[in-house]
Amino acid sequence: MRRALLAALLALSLCSACGAKPNPQGDSAEEDLIVVGMSQVGAESDWRVANSESMKAVFTEENGYRLLFDDARQKQENQITAIRKFIQQQVDYIVLMPISESGWDSVLQEAREAGIPVILVDRMVDVEDESLYSAHIGSDFLREGTAAVDWIESAYPDGEPVRIVHIHGTLGSTAQLGRTAALEEAVACHENWELLARLDGDFTQAKTYEVMTEYLARLSGREDVDVVYCENDNIAFGALQALEEGGYVCGSDGVNVVTFDATRNALLDCLNGRISLAVECNPLLGPLVEETIQAMEMGRMPEKQQYVEERVFTAAQLTTALIEERVY
Ligand code: GZL
Ligand code: ZN
Question: Does pLDDT of 178 surpass 90?
């Protein structure tokens, strides 16, 4: 939009040259706003909803922004369409939460040709030329997965068999790739760990409930499952429902459910013992994105990679008060 301001100023100078009285319409404050085109994955999880709220809370008119927010309903083609629309609208910045890592090179080229900086949030893109984006702000997903397998190691003394059901998130998303890599690495180097199944929960409760119910129905006995590794909380909620309907006891003296995100409902399940471990994945990225845009407005190059701080929770670290005061 600020490009429109430049064009108006140019028109003004031409008008004064030709003597015509320009009549600059429009609210000047409107043209001072920084226009941000934001392409969000969807609303598939509690984490995602908190992430969107965090963005909408900072990119307000009071703070000097016009936010054009697009919900891609978990389809990459919708994100690419939205980015092309933002380019036509000549936004000042594009903020992209990419659903998966591949398939972004050409549309990010188009943004660069239009002179519009792209900031990546949450998951990552896999592009030939890293100059196609100015910065990435998000989580170190491999580190999250490593924190989870370290806990599993500590929960099962060496030698004891550990039979694991792995329920992964949206295939090809950075969160899925990192959390899966950590588990696969750990399974490879613990001969007493056995991967019973890898199911696709796509980060949603409904999909997980469906695939986990089908899987448990095929198992001979209840004693087969020691750990269910859920790549986000909504997967954990679907798995818990299927496990308990199948007669399984979930918790430290039954099936250890491990999850990622650590949203409020998962922390409550952790406090009451249904979930054994919750690895935090911080969705509150709005302020960091806004700081990055402010730095670029001042002509400063932002840090290319910014990781958010994240913790790990078991019941021992939790109280109802702590859970209530958390934002998401
Ligand atoms: C992680 C994010 C993941 C969350 C899920 O940063 O990409 O996507 O872990 C969400 O809840 O669906
Ligand atoms: Zn994270």
Answer: yes
